[in-house]
């Protein structure tokens, strides 16, 4: 699993192993194994082939595949969030929407500008953009897969009925995207939730563990957000610089083919160097993106999910306390006492249930986080070293040739 | 109708060999004989200084090439002769060498033969080049440094003064090591003087760095921020490269104005370099006129070499511009990368602070440190990108503009010659008319005019041949310099890239165990 260090075309495999291992407790469980075996990109949607292998009795077959689209993943995620029974768990964050707009735009611009550049330049840029498109595609596949694997690995969530339907029902789930009205409803719901969140968070928790977690998560979430954004920008600058190498290489090539003096050999050699070094720099940028930016982005979403869990717990605590107050009032007035008692008990149970599972979830969260960071940071360092050494060798051998020539 | 030709200034003994040569055949046989009879090695040291004074009388443009040829060959020789005569501005030194002399008359004579092709001299050119190369070995023992920029004065009248240090063992200078203070307009003044003297006869005078009103105003106003220090450093480096290129040029090195610039402690202020001065406006007008003229001159290019070279330089210009734009983009992106890396480093440090798992927290702080160091690396690399690579390219783009200018001057020279021929024709026609009309006094006047214009035609032809020859030589030298320059600079740049990668390896190697230590 750790040999994500080959730089062959096996990009997808590398990412797969990488991302999947980020946050899934690696129990290669025979009971339920899910992966995305194939994906197809059509004009504005991506079709994922979800492949399941299971020995569980509730499935009709042991191995089967269905085709799903992004909206269906979102539907699944939302169904978890809205399910009261799962209030005490960290819901695995939904995968981000596949976004090929930027890449598509660039390809289009390239097509328009075809007349203004030489054939070699055009082919080079086209290859570059196609590689970029492919990379984005692979990433989105990996992220959808991670979501499914997390669900499959969760002891409770894997038993969810909606999940089984998602995996097995081989026709369209008819999950239409939310229309305007529903989107507006969502918007209001979120607003209410965040306002509520503020109120609820004002309530100090008796339990030290949760109090600590709350402060920690709040700060951590903000900082991860910042780090993720900055890491993104850094990776993108790196890519721009690598692209410049491309253009420099082309210009040097043109100079080399047109010059009449002995320096033309020189130019051609250096142009070759820039082409090769550019490939390495592009890989550096891609690896940083994968190991650093993506890691941070994922934990941004996970920490949000953890925050949501804490919110739900606090909410239930407030409910419990309110129920207590109501019970006291009812007892005092001696009216509807039974009703108040039942309601209080329900709230109490709910609160305790959530608290118990939340504690475990948060501990697991930390373990997963530390493991993921460790894995990715180690891989990042190893890849950076590999590329720097590759680069160094290229440069040194080129210098040796050039110096020998002089 | 051979005009009186002054024999080329030679050592005393050789004058006899160069009587006026009339026709083509005689020309060649006589030169052949002189070739055979010429003694072998030049003995510059023994030549009397009086030779110089003979040259100072009415120097003709034709002789410039001669002297310069010899001077090129015997740059060592020039060390020993002090060039004191102020009059001889464009012409300098001189020692004629017996080995060379036979060649020169051929080139001077060639134009007299009907054919306008100068193919014959070309062979000689090459051999001369070879000899030059040997002589030029490591003759130019002169090093220039521009340093210590300091602000003098206040407000809008303030300016930056730079220290120009010269280290040399050439004896034409009074000392071996000396320095002076110069301001930017002094450099422009120097270039202006050199350009006026040498550009129109075909020498590629290195262009001075460009003015920048915005940059200078910031400095004057006293903004002590990084952009103005960057500006000053960029200018300082550009001035240094400018002087180094200028002194590398064997002809320009001999120029007294250059010497004065390097040596004398006080220099008259070059006001004519100001953009809005009378001279500045005149320059702008001339430039515009030149541009128009260039479009209207239709030259019969008889020498394919020039056409080929012009095309090559045109292509080179385009390619260099493109490359320069790409390198500038690289500099920009690397600076951006550096800024973003620094921002990320801070952010990672904050993240490490809030992480409650101790080992991970420590690793994140280490990551932040690594990224900070990498940011430094990026900054240094951007610096190298710019000062080593990008500035070289922009220097050459401007140099090629100077080369193109020199080609243009040749065209103008041809134009002058052509115009003279047309006028001569007209005068001859006028004379014929007078003959028919039989007006003796007018006839005499016409004959005088014809003689006058015949001289001008010959002069024009000579000038044209001279400038063509000079340009060929200059272009040869330029190409050699260019190849050398680019090779050196590109290798230096690649070495900077090597350094960066080595540092990167060090940093990541230090970080890896930290990452692995997360438990």
From TrEMBL, chain A:
Keywords: Protein transport, Transport. GO terms for biological process: cellular response to amyloid-beta; intracellular protein transport; negative regulation of DNA-templated transcription; negative regulation of neuron apoptotic process; negative regulation of transforming growth factor beta receptor signaling pathway; retrograde transport, endosome to Golgi. PROSITE patterns: PX (PS50195). The keyword Nucleotide-binding does not apply. SUPFAM superfamilies: BAR/IMD domain-like, PX domain. The keyword Transport applies. Belongs to the sorting nexin family. PANTHER family: SORTING NEXIN FAMILY MEMBER, SORTING NEXIN-6. This is Sorting nexin. The lineage of its organism: Eukaryota, Metazoa, Chordata, Craniata, Vertebrata.
UniProtKB/TrEMBL annotation, chain B:
One of its GO terms (cellular component) is cytosol. It holds the Pfam family Vps5. InterPro entries: AH/BAR_dom_sf (IPR027267), PX_dom (IPR001683), PX_dom_sf (IPR036871), SNX2_PX (IPR037918), Sorting_nexin_N (IPR005329), Vps5_C (IPR015404). Residues 140-269 form the PX domain. Residues 1-104 are annotated as: Disordered. It is a peripheral membrane protein. The keyword Coiled coil applies. Keywords: Acetylation, Cell projection, Coiled coil, Endosome, Lipid-binding, Membrane, Phosphoprotein, Protein transport, Transport. It is found in: Cell projection, Lamellipodium; Early endosome membrane. Residues 27-50 have a biased composition (Low complexity). One of its GO terms (molecular function) is phosphatidylinositol binding. Residues 436-470 form a coiled coil. GO terms for biological process: early endosome to Golgi transport; intracellular protein transport. PANTHER family: SORTING NEXIN, SORTING NEXIN-2. Belongs to the sorting nexin family. Involved in several stages of intracellular trafficking. Interacts with membranes containing phosphatidylinositol 3-phosphate (PtdIns(3P)) or phosphatidylinositol 3,5-bisphosphate (PtdIns(3,5)P2). Acts in part as component of the retromer membrane-deforming SNX-BAR subcomplex. The SNX-BAR retromer mediates retrograde transport of cargo proteins from endosomes to the trans-Golgi network (TGN) and is involved in endosome-to-plasma membrane transport for cargo protein recycling. This is Sorting nexin-2. It comes from Monodelphis domestica. The lineage of its organism: Eukaryota, Metazoa, Chordata, Craniata, Vertebrata.
């Amino acid at each position: 699993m750790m040999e994500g260090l080959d730089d062959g075309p096996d990009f997808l495999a590398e990412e797969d192993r990488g991302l999947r291992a980020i946050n899934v407790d690696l129990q290669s469980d025979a009971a339920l194994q899910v992966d995305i075996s194939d994906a197809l990109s059509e004009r504005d949607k991506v079709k994922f082939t979800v492949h399941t292998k299971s020995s569980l009795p509730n499935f009709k077959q042991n191995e089967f595949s269905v085709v799903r689209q992004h909206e269906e993943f979102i539907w699944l995620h939302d169904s978890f969030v809205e399910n009261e029974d799962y209030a005490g768990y960290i819901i695995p964050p939904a995968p981000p929407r596949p976004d090929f707009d930027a890449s598509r735009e660039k390809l289009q611009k390239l097509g328009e500008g075809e007349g203004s550049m030489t054939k070699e330049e055009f082919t080079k840029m086209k290859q570059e953009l196609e590689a970029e498109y492919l990379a984005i595609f692979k990433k989105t596949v990996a992220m959808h897969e991670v979501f499914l694997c997390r669900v499959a690995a969760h002891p409770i969530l894997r038993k969810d009925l909606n999940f089984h339907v998602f995996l097995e029902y081989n026709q369209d789930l008819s999950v239409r995207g939310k229309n305007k009205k529903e989107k507006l409803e969502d918007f209001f719901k979120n607003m209410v939730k965040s306002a509520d969140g503020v109120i609820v968070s004002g309530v100090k928790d008796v339990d030290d563990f949760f109090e600590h977690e709350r402060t920690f998560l709040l700060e951590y979430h903000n900082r991860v957000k910042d780090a993720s954004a900055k890491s993104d920008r850094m990776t993108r600058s790196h890519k721009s610089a690598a692209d410049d190498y491309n253009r420099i290489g082309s210009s040097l090539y043109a100079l080399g083919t047109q010059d009449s003096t002995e320096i033309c050999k020189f130019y051609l050699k250096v142009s070759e160097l820039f082409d090769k070094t550019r490939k390495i720099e592009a890989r550096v940028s891609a690896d940083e993106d994968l190991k650093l930016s993506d890691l941070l982005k994922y934990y941004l979403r996970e920490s949000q999910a953890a925050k949501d869990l804490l919110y739900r717990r606090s909410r239930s605590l407030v409910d419990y306390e309110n129920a207590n107050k109501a019970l006291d009032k009812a007892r005092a007035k001696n009216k509807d006492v039974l009703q108040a008692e039942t309601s209080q008990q329900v709230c109490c149970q709910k609160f305790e249930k959530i608290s118990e599972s939340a504690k475990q979830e948060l501990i697991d969260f930390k373990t997963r986080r530390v493991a993921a960071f460790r894995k990715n940071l180690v891989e990042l360092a190893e890849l950076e070293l590999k590329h720097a050494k590759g680069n160094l060798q290229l440069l040194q051998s080129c210098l040796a040739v050039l110096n020998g020539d002089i | 109708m051979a005009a009186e030709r002054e024999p080329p200034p030679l050592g005393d003994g050789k004058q006899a060999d160069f009587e006026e040569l009339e026709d083509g055949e005689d020309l060649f046989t006589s030169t052949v004989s002189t070739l055979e009879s010429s003694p072998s090695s030049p003995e510059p040291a023994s030549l009397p200084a009086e030779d110089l004074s003979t040259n100072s009388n009415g120097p003709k443009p034709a002789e410039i090439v001669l002297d310069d040829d010899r001077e090129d060959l015997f740059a060592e020789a020039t060390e020993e002769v002090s060039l004191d005569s102020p009059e001889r501005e464009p012409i300098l030194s001189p020692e004629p060498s017996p080995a060379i002399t036979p060649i020169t008359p051929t080139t001077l004579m060639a134009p007299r033969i009907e054919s306008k092709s100068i193919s014959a001299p070309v062979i000689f050119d090459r051999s001369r080049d070879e000899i030059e190369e040997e002589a030029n070995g490591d003759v130019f023992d002169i090093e220039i440094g521009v340093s210590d920029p300091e602000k003098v004065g206040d407000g809008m009248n303030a300016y930056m003064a730079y220290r120009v240090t010269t280290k040399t063992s050439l004896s034409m200078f009074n000392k071996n090591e000396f320095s002076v203070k110069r301001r930017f307009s002094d450099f422009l003044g120097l270039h202006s003087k050199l350009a006026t003297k040498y550009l129109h006869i075909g020498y590629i005078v290195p262009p001075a760095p460009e003015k920048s009103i915005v940059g200078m105003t910031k400095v004057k106003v006293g903004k002590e921020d990084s952009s103005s220090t960057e500006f000053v450093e960029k200018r300082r480096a550009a001035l240094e490269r400018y002087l180094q290129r200028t002194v590398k040029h064997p002809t320009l090195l001999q120029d007294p104005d250059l010497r004065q610039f390097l040596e004398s402690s006080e220099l008259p202020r070059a006001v004519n370099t100001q953009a809005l001065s009378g001279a500045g406006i005149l320059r702008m007008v001339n430039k515009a006129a030149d541009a128009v003229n260039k479009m209207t001159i239709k030259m019969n290019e008889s020498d394919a070499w020039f056409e080929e070279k012009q095309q090559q330089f045109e292509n080179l210009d385009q390619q260099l511009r493109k490359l320069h734009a790409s390198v500038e983009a690289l500099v920009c992106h690397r600076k951006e990368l550096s800024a973003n890396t620094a921002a990320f480093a801070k952010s990672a440090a904050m993240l490490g602070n809030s992480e409650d798992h101790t080992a991970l927290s420590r690793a994140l702080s280490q990551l932040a440190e690594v990224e900070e160091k990498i940011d430094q690396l990026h900054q240094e690399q951007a610096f190298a990108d710019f000062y080593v690579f990008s500035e070289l390219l922009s220097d050459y783009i401007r140099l090629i503009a100077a080369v193109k200018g020199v080609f243009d001057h040749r065209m103008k020279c041809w134009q002058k010659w052509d115009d003279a021929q047309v006028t001569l024709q007209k005068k001859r026609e006028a004379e014929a008319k007078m003959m028919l009309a039989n007006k003796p006094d007018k006839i005499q006047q016409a004959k005088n005019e014809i003689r006058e214009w015949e001289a001008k035609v010959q002069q024009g032809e000579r000038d044209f041949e001279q400038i063509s020859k000079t340009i060929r030589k200059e272009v040869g030298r330029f190409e050699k310099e260019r190849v050398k320059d680019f090779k050196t600079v590109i290798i230096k740049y690649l070495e900077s890239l090597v350094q960066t990668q080595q540092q990167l390896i060090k940093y990541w190697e230090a970080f890896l165990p930290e990452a692995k230590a997360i438990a």
